[in-house]
Amino acid sequence: MSTAKATLSALRQRIAAIETTARSAPPGEIAQDVCTPVMSSRAGRITLDRDEVDAALGGGLARGALHEILAASGADNIAASGFSLALALAAAPAGRPIVWVRQDYAAREGGELHADGLQALGLDPAALILVQLRDPLAVLRAGGEAARCGALGAVILEPWGEPKALDLTTQRRFALAAEASGVTVLLLRPGARPMPGAAETRWLVRSGPAMPMAMNAPGHPTFDLTLLRHRHGPPGGPWRLEWNRDDKLFKRPALLRDPAALSRIEPAPHPAERAPFRLAG
């Protein structure tokens, strides 16, 4: 059996075990039907900041949908990964694992996931199921398996660049799978350009300067965000927000309570004006 087939088989077994656990759990701990969407108290929307971003999204990020995240440059890939994980943590019901399916080239370019970094963002590494595959088609297949499992908290799908297999039809399948299972699917696109797709929202992420805390301790992770596409509304931003892992919410840094400071955050450039990504080798 090839490595990709063995990995996919192991993922299927892991998902089957999670589904079995979900079905046998006492009522109230996990939804009785793992295929039933777990709706939040905000009509199926995920609270992000209780402020401008939620307002721009019509009440929060749609749960059980496909959302796309792009880095503004190669140097922002880590920020885009952190933002994707923050969204996954905001979306995941308590006690449900997060599946992260990565193409190995993305790991080589952006670095391997680190347990301390995951914990710093608020994720217990034991709650993460990491799948790493070489072929982009295998990555998409594994992502499809995960997106259909309603017992998961969220799915991060990370192919590298612009694989031909990730066409509009494939993205539409991910969107339908997310809608059917109620699992929020985050399509992280390192090395890709903004292009038409089936995502509910599309985000452009830059790393932002973090404000140090007391005793010069490292500040909260900070992101400069632009909403490039919103299926049910206009684009939005830019916003500079920091992630609070304890509240699982984004908040404006205290420095930016001054509205004039927002003008210094550059809006998203037109795709044609962006510098090409540098590829290793």
TrEMBL record:
Domain of life: Bacteria
Biased composition (Basic and acidic residues): 271-281
Positions of the UniProt region annotated as Disordered: 262-281
Protein name per Swiss-Prot or TrEMBL: Protein ImuA
Species this chain originates from: Kaistia nematophila
